[in-house]
Structure formats: structure tokens, C-alpha cells
Amino acid sequence: MLLIPCPHCGPRAEIEFSYGGEAHIARPEEPDELTDQEWSDYVFMRRNPKGVVLERWVHAHGCRRWFNAARDTVTYEILAIYPMGQNPPELPEPRYL
């Protein structure tokens, strides 16, 4: 089981949290002007890299607050937790063979 460090409640079991998707996805400023393809890309297309990803999480069965996490998709290690609306911290790029 993954142990997630909630910035407000401390470390808690993964089952207390809900995944909110990729972080830092800006909603289009003029959504009515998007083509169907552009809207589809915004809603459905996400990166799926091997390595560090920036994600949104909510402590659904705790404080119910949202936060961002930098997580390695290979090792599942959580590298950093940071508040919503802030830029991610500088992280070293892992190297995988």
C-alpha cells in the first residue's frame, strides 16, 4: 500500500485519497470557440510518461483538501508534495534503462 503524506494531516494510507489526474492542466479560456477535436484533446489526452509525473490528489476521507504531488511512475515513490496553485519544485530527472 502506498503511504501518501497529506500536507495537512500527515502520512495516511492510499485508500483515504482520490486521484485527480494530471496537474497543471489549464482550462481553455474560450471553450465555446474550440473545435470538437480541440475539446476532445483537452478532456481526454494526457501524457503517460515513464518517470516523474505531476498529479492532483484529494484527501477524500480526511481533511478533503486538494494538493499536488510529484510521483515516480516506475517506483511509485512520492518525491514532493506542494499546494495547489504553486509551481512544482525542482526535481532531478530519473534515468531508466
Largest sheet: 4 strands, antiparallel
Structural class: mainly beta
Helix content: under 10%
Q: What's the CATH topology label?
A: Folate-binding fold
Number of β-strand runs: 6
CATH superfamily: Folate-binding superfamily
> What is the string of helix and strand elements?
EEEHEEE
- Residues in β-strands, percent: 25-35%
Domain module count? 1
Overall morphology: globular
Count the DSSP helices.
Answer: 1
CATH class designation: Alpha Beta
Our measurement of the CA-to-CA distance between the termini, rounded to an integer number of angstroms, reads: 26 Å
**Low-confidence stretches at least 5 residues in length (pLDDT < 50)?**
none
* Strand line-up of the largest beta sheet: 3-4-5-6
Tell me the Rg in angstroms: 15 Å
Describe this structure as you would to a colleague.
- With 97 residues, this protein is mostly beta strands.
- It has one domain: Folate-binding superfamily (Folate-binding fold, 2-Layer Sandwich).
- Helices cover 9% and strands 33% of the residues.
- The strands form 2 sheets. The protein has a 4-stranded antiparallel sheet, with no helix packed on it.
- Strand 4 and strand 5 (66-72) form a beta hairpin.
